[in-house]
Write a structure and sequence with these properties.
The structure holds 2 protein chains of 2 kinds.
Chain A (H helix, E strand, L loop, with lengths): L8 H16 L9 H7 L1 H11 L1 E2 L1 H10 L4 H12 L4 E7 L6 E6 L10 E2 L17 H20 L17 H6 L26 H9 L3 H12 L8 E14 L8 E18 L5 E10 L3 H13 L15 H7 L2 H9 L6 H24 L1 H8 L3 H6 L1
Antiparallel strand pairs in A: 3-5, 5-6, 6-7
Chain B lengths: L1 H15 L2 H10 L7 E16 L6 E16 L2 E7 L4 H15 L4 H27 L2 E2 L10
Antiparallel strand pairs in B: 1-2, 2-3
Helix pairs in contact in B: 1-3, 1-4, 2-3, 3-4
Classes of the chains: A alpha+beta, B alpha+beta.
């Protein structure tokens, strides 16, 4: 039990003052700007937006700056900020098939129509920590740039307008062959976690919303657990895409949907082991989240698939336990409840302490009253005595 | 029907273009009277939706900032919507939406918007040329004697 305490206001105010000072760091180092965070820490901003469940690059950058770089704290700040705004309703579902892609790869087909587009990726890098601050190196890079471009042209890479930026979904190949389950729009109204608390059993809509805002580390660990045998789903990434999708909204006064802007999204589609006696079909998992967030999207697709109890699979791991996964995925809730144990629990602890002291005192009194019992209890048991 | 198509296109360009550009276009028309604001510019949230497995029923993905406003210029009601915390952008969009409905201004607004669209397409093309250079061909090696 947590009991309210009074006093300490001055110390708290001083602690907050000190925090501001420490957060600023050495005053001779320039203050990091929000533009710098947005431009150079794009993936951190993406994560804060995805788990903060609010697409707002400016606010996410501010939250990262205010949270001293603690992303979970920044996510908390974003969630807190959203509560002060009114809601205007729901967007039309985004059409990820017509996304303007900046990255698109498939692990199932090498010769994919539309091509494998690596985009800006850490894949195939050597993960060598080089000092890129070296100004000489930087100037060399710039001077090399035109000649690299010229060399690329000799390899027949696209020069003129040869846009692959809008590419069709890879899973369609299997859908058209009829060997992959197809999700159809049942026109149902999806549950909304921001309007009503989580309840079980959860539908696929609720699971996806929960996972989209779930902690990346938690979802990643669960996905990993399925690969290590705790409920394997044999995933193949048919397509992983990062890009920009238009968002449409239907204003009541117009009565038809209009585009209101574009957002960056990461989407992962997996094809998983097949089910069904007659007409067996591959099953699928799905991951979609705000920003450039591919580790999260892949993990999400794997966990989403593992949670599909409707396919009648045996439960072999925690990742398949809906209540376990969905009730513990939110890092704002989790951090709040875990961290609250550091707050004053003085009264609570005092009651435990006096209870333990009472028990021990009663035992001592009992021993004083009947010394025989104490001796018997203190003697080593027979087998040890013989060996000794 | 054509009117709806034209308006959808117009609203899209207005929402995707830089605020400074909308301001520049609006300033071309030196209006005598300030636009009548029917709904004060305001920012709020909308819940973005995705589809289960990309094609299925909708699910709620997360929230977005939406700014909106409604104005009237010479009796033509314009609406402004944009995905950011910029009521000013929404205001300019609403003004241009209104002017685009007014036969005396429509042609010029449409011309300017087409130029904005062209500029945006060029920008996207420039980006996608860089992306396209990362397109790869993976080879698989055949093992054993064929």
């Amino acid at each position: 039990m947590y009991v309210a305490v009074k006093g300490g206001a001055r110390a708290i105010a001083e602690a907050h003052k000190l925090l501001e000072e420490k957060k600023r760091g050495d005053m001779s180092v320039p203050l990091i700007t929000l533009e710098q965070i947005k431009e150079q820490m794009h993936l951190a901003v993406s994560r804060v937006m995805a788990e903060g469940s609010l697409y707002a690059p400016d606010l996410a950058a501010l939250a990262i700056q205010k949270a001293w770089g603690d992303l979970v704290e920044a996510i908390f700040l974003l969630r807190a900020a959203r509560t002060s705004y009114q809601s205007f309703g729901y967007s039309e579902p985004v059409d990820t098939a017509s996304m303007r892609v900046t990255r698109r790869i498939s692990a199932t087909w090498k010769d994919l129509p539309g091509g494998q587009i690596l985009g800006a990726t850490f894949d195939y890098t050597h993960r060598l920590l080089e000092d890129s601050q070296d100004s000489d190196e930087q100037s060399q890079e710039t001077s090399l740039a035109p000649s690299l471009e010229a060399r690329a042209a000799t390899f027949g890479l696209p020069k003129e307008k040869d846009s692959f930026s809008k590419v069709f979904k890879a899973a369609r190949i299997l859908e058209e062959e009829g060997i992959l389950e197809v999700e159809r729009d049942t026109q149902s109204q999806p549950c909304d976690l921001t309007m009503e608390p989580l309840s079980f059993p959860a539908g696929r809509d609720l699971r996806l919303q929960n996972l989209a805002r779930g902690d990346e580390g938690f979802v990643l660990a669960l996905a990993y657990s399925t690969q290590r045998g705790f409920g394997s789903t044999h995933p193949f990434v048919t397509e992983l895409r990062v890009g920009y999708a238009k968002v449409e909204f239907t204003p009541p006064e117009l009565g038809f949907p209009i585009c209101i802007g574009e957002i960056e999204l990461t989407e992962c589609e997996t094809v998983n082991h097949f089910v069904g006696q007659e007409n067996p079909r591959f099953t699928r998992g799905y991951g979609l989240c705000f920003g450039n967030n591919e580790r999260k999207a892949i993990s999400m697709a794997m966990v989403e698939r593992a949670l599909r109890s409707e396919l009648g699979e045996l439960k072999k791991g925690p990742a398949q336990d809906e209540e376990f996964v969905l009730a513990h995925s939110d890092n704002v809730e989790a951090a709040g409840f875990v961290s609250h144990v550091k707050l004053p629990h003085y009264v609570d602890f005092q009651s435990e302490l006096s209870l333990l002291r009472d028990i021990r005192k009663k035992e001592r009194d009992l021993k004083l009253a009947a010394p025989d019992i104490e001796e018997k209890n203190d003697k080593p048991s027979a087998p040890f005595a013989e060996k000794g | 029907m054509d009117e709806i198509v034209a308006r959808r296109r117009r609203m899209e360009i207005l929402s995707l273009s830089p605020t400074g550009e909308l301001e520049r276009i609006f300033n071309i028309f030196k209006l005598e009277k300030d636009p009548l604001v029917l709904r004060a510019p305001e920012s709020g949230l909308i819940m973005a939706r995705g589809r289960i497995a990309g094609t299925g029923s909708p699910f709620n993905l997360g929230e977005l900032f939406l700014s909106r406003t409604a104005v009237s210029i010479l009796g033509f009601v314009g609406y402004g919507y944009c995905l950011c915390q910029s009521p000013y952008h929404a205001y300019l969009a609403a003004c241009l939406d209104s002017l685009a409905q007014n036969p005396s201004y429509a042609e010029l607004v449409e011309k300017e918007l087409s130029l904005l669209q062209l500029a945006r397409e060029k920008e996207i093309e420039k980006e996608s040329r860089k992306t396209d250079k990362t397109k790869v061909e993976f080879f698989t090696l055949v093992r054993g004697d064929d």
